[in-house]
Amino acid sequence: MSTAARSALIALALSGSFAGAPAPAQAAGQVVVIQVEGTINPASSDYIQRGIALAAEEGAAALLLELDTPGGLVAATKDIIRAILNADVPVVVYVAPQGAWAGSAGTFITLAGHVAAMAPGTSIGAAHPVGIGGGDKRDEGDGEGTKGRDVAGEKAENLLAAYIESIAKQRERNVEWAIKAVRESVAVTADRALELGVIDLIAPNRRALFEQLEGRRVQTNVGEVTLAVRDAPVQLVVMTPFQRFMHVLASPDVAVLLMMAGLLGLYVEFTNPGIVLPGVIGAACLILGLIALQILPFSWLGLILFFLGLGLLVAEVFVASFGVLFAAGIICLLLGGTMIFDVPQVSDLQVSFWSVLVPAVGGFALFAAIVVFGVARSMGRRQTAGVEELMGMQGRAETAIAAGGTGTVFIHGEYWTAQTELAVDAGDPVEVTQVEGLQLRVRPRARG
């Protein structure tokens, strides 16, 4: 399923969920506030689009989007920008609170707002498309030698550069800086962004923002609007529970952790049938992880490497490779985890390597190492069940046994028919040397 199709399906489901929640009646002239924190994905995209539609339906004076994001999916970002550019109500994008940032996709959204504002201590930029997997690389001569060129990456960069240029021109913002944000990943502070004409104003809080917005004229889809928001009532619109759930699920870190937890739970259940709880939890986590893969664009190469790594760790339990499979599994897990969501042209989402992937792989590897160690110890132990455990056991002869003859011995609390090559007297100690069906072969032992 393509990324666009996945986004459409998720957006359709989310729209139904949002539409099912009754919108509270508010007086005209209010400011509708929506808050987005985290990645830009189909859930946050639908939340913003429905917020814009609600503000228009309620006749709001403006819609305030308080933004704090490291970036996200290009498809979801495009839907948000289209909704903002075609909005009938003024949309104010406010990068806040202090310490927030509008990275990557957030840069596009901020520039698209009718008014772009930032709180002190915030930053904006670094909008270059990210991706090391899936690129179509070709060689290009340069006179002095040959160097590789990532054609897919260039296409994404050129497309996004043209896209942000058109947005900046329409909003009469710094076009040159906007292009550099895409091509050179430049980022600036709020003060510098104001100096460069990237944003319109800086406000430490919402009240100060409304004061500065008062009387400002903006051009919306229905014509010029003069903002009157100083004393306007505020309506905060929050995500529905389903949207919040999908928003959390649409995180690469969460998706990887869910898949690892799911496979670990299923492995525990398969190796210890009847426990039930690990299997149920594992199946639930794996299903949620697969749902996340339908929301997020993923690389098949990264996914294959990821599952190959898990398979190698499990194989180490059954194959004596002296740690070779174990080490290969760890390497595949780390490589697959870094590549699984690293797809150019569709997102800049990546799994947090040091804070999430390494601890998760380390924990899984520790569990696998304990299992391998336990299996190795159990295989090296002497047989403790069944007939084979009688080998080497000592007992006594209950009857005298002639050389080559048979008699009765008492071994391990039981009476057995036994044969010996050397004669033994009744009461002499004997040792089992062989088990032949229901008969033992024994030899005499010295009393001691």
Walkthrough of the structure:
The protein has 14 helices and 18 strands. With 448 residues, the chain is of the alpha/beta class. The protein has three domains: 3-239, Alpha-Beta Complex (2-enoyl-CoA Hydratase, Chain A, domain 1); 251-379, no CATH class; 388-444, OB fold (Dihydrolipoamide Acetyltransferase, E2P), CATH 2.40.50. The strands form five sheets. The protein has a six-stranded parallel beta sheet with strand order 10-5-3-2-1-13, covered by helices on one side. It has a five-stranded mixed barrel with strand order 14-15-16-18-17. A hairpin with a 4-residue loop joins β7 and β8 (146-150). α10 (252-271) packs antiparallel against α11.
